[in-house]
Write a structure and sequence with these properties.
Layout: E1 6-9, H1 19-28, E2 34-39, H2 51-61, E3 67-72, H3 80-86, E4 90-94, H4 101-110, E5 114-119, H5 125-128, E6 137-141, H6 157-166, E7 171-175, H7 183-189, E8 193-196, H8 198-201, H9 206-227
Parallel strand pairs: 1-8, 2-3, 3-4, 4-5, 5-6, 6-7, 7-8
Helix pairs in contact: 1-2, 2-3, 6-7, 7-9
Catalytic activity: D-ribulose 5-phosphate = D-xylulose 5-phosphate
Protein name: Ribulose-phosphate 3-epimerase
Keywords: Carbohydrate metabolism, Cobalt, Iron, Isomerase, Manganese, Metal-binding, Zinc
């Protein structure tokens, strides 16, 4: 088992007028990576930011922080090269947005980024399965993408469990409504990459929340390795 517990604050929950310093603050509070939500107003109703913002953030935070780009866009092919040039580390696209995932995966790899593949709540995990050995990370959305602050959908956990059983070493990320109240369910199901927005960034003590989330996930990983 080669996966580990990683916590990625969703920076869209932060004060967007000082995004650079918020990213630095999250890394200083112990974040393992940063989760950046790109929305185009088509695939999801909201519009957020694009590659120029990512380029500015990369200059601000330096080369070390891992940028996980969650591309909630209807034409993910269009932004691979611009995001790579801007300093993105991983390009996570939605399975629902392309008819040729294989081609897109190849393109992302060739541009020097890691590959993430996301599914919305209405998409079955079996649809993702054929690509699981070709990607670095699977993202199981635990809310409908497009808005922050939604309630965690516990009924998505069987997808995570199924993926963990079928692909034991795959990085599995959950995103949406995840915080101290729901982390145990995510960890027990087998998620190891945890996106948390308001629960971390809105907290008076983000460092403690990040540490708590990581501890719960790490303990579940350890338990799973002992149970095998």
């Amino acid at each position: 088992m080669s996966y580990s517990a990683k916590i990625g604050p969703s920076i869209l929950s932060s004060d967007l007028s000082c995004l650079g310093s918020e990213c630095v603050r999250m890394m200083e509070c112990g974040a393992d990576y940063l989760h950046l939500d790109v929305m185009d107003g088509h695939f999801v109703p909201n519009i957020t930011f694009g590659h120029p913002m990512v380029e500015c953030l990369r200059k601000t935070v330096g080369q070390d922080p891992f940028f996980d780009m969650h591309m909630m866009v209807s034409r993910p092919e269009q932004w691979v090269k611009p995001m790579a040039a801007a300093g993105a580390s991983q390009y996570t696209f939605h399975l629902e947005t392309t008819t040729n995932p294989g081609n897109l995966i190849k393109e992302i790899r060739e541009s020097g980024m890691k590959v993430g593949l996301a599914i919305k709540p209405g998409t079955t995990v079996e649809e993702l399965a054929p690509w699981a050995n070709h990607i670095d990370m699977a993202l199981v959305m635990t809310v409908e993408p497009g808005f922050g602050g939604q309630k965690f959908m516990e009924d998505m956990m069987p997808k995570v469990t199924w993926l963990r059983n079928q692909f034991p070493s795959l990085d599995i990320e959950v995103d949406g409504g995840v915080g101290p109240d729901s982390i145990h369910k995510c960890a027990e199901a087998g998620a190891n990459m945890i996106v948390s927005g308001s629960a971390v960034i809105g907290s008076d003590d983000p460092r403690s929340v990040i540490a708590l989330l990581r501890t719960v996930v790490a303990e579940a990983i350890q338990k799973r390795s002992l149970d095998r």
